[in-house]
Amino acid sequence: MNNPFANMDAKSAMKYFGEMNSKMMKGATLLTDVEEIDVGTAPKTLVYTEDKLAVYHYASDAKNACGIPVLVVYALVNRPYMLDIQPDRSFIRNLLSQGLDVYIIDWGYPSGADRYLSMDDYINGYLNNCVDAVCRDAASDKVSLMGVCQGGTFSAIYSALHPEKVHSLVTLVAPFDFSTDEGLLFNWSKSMDVDALVDAYGVVPGNLMNDGFLMMMPFNLNIKKYVDMLDVMEDEDKLLNFLRMEKWIFDSPGQAGECLRQFVKDCYQANKLVQGTLQLGDKTVDLGKITMPILNIYGSGDHIVPPAATKPLNDLVSSTDKTLYEFKGGHIGVFVGARSQKELAPAISQWLIERDAPKAAKKPAKPVKAPVAKPVEAAKPAVKAAKPVEAAKPVEAAKPVEVAKPVEAAKPATDSKP
Fold this sequence. Notes:
Blueprint: H1 10-33, E1 44-50, E2 53-58, E3 70-73, H2 91-97, E4 102-106, H3 119-138, E5 143-148, H4 150-161, E6 166-172, H5 184-191, H6 194-201, E7 203-204, H7 206-214, H8 218-229, H9 236-250, E8 255-256, H10 257-269, H11 272-275, E9 279-280, E10 283-284, E11 294-299, H12 307-310, H13 313-316, E12 322-327, H14 333-336, H15 338-361, H16 369-378, H17 380-385, H18 387-391, H19 393-398, H20 404-415
């Protein structure tokens, strides 16, 4: 927003306030005409439900370029329609246009009945059931997981525990090494009395969690963006874009208490994931069990999950095919920024398609074997047909001069091969 007081004179000040008044009047008219803020509009079909969660399959008109279905695993703390915030800034639509077969988990809104759900319930229970449902729906033995933020952490844990079901692993701005002191979230979580929080609420309210995220950048997220909004008040498209983001920011589900308790204590405070001591039920998580191809993406300007928390994953896995990708942007810009649409979504799609290429290459080779055998079998009758020629030897003995005639008569038998 331009500073109207840079040149302090009455004429320019009156002009500025007049223009601002006109913008606000027009913006107020636009706001009263808005009946609903549309988000998550990419066509999709419900394929699986369990308790609060749902799995959707996105429709696509593009030719399928990747035989392995992609299951998107979003964080529990926000709603997954951020990836499809509007048609012209849709990460999902971009992936579909590249030829990916995309599914997504909507975790829903936990209620009091879900307060005792643990990380084991979410990962070895819900996530495992979602993977099986996608495999059935897509008639595939495996899926490729695309985990976002906390969903990336869960996806890596799942891949270590169930590597036989994961073809490729893509993680976006996800934390793995929680020892870093960069970023307020990591500092706050290390000193948080999460036991008192969970014991008090059971299911920790989403607005309480959201207030904490907003306080990480208090000026930009609580003041500046609303001042900047005044510049777009009269532009309907830009105003609706702003309102869609606002809807997503404040649409925060509550957090199942036991899952949050373990995530904070075992990951943020004890850093058990990278130490190989994280326990889920009767299973110990060893990131070294990850052997499938991985694409690990971090945002260079991410203030929520700093690069230092994301990058170490590549050194902890046993995969020989592993890529560390730096995106020049912040935590949310990874999905909705212009650079994301032009650069990141196509890069992820190409990476996944290349890893699926060996399986696709086998398809044209299958019919080659059958035609090779047919000419060999067809030649057998021709050998038998030559026997009558030998039976004509007595004729040759009677008339040696006409020996060549039976040979000529045998030629049609050769021409008559099927």
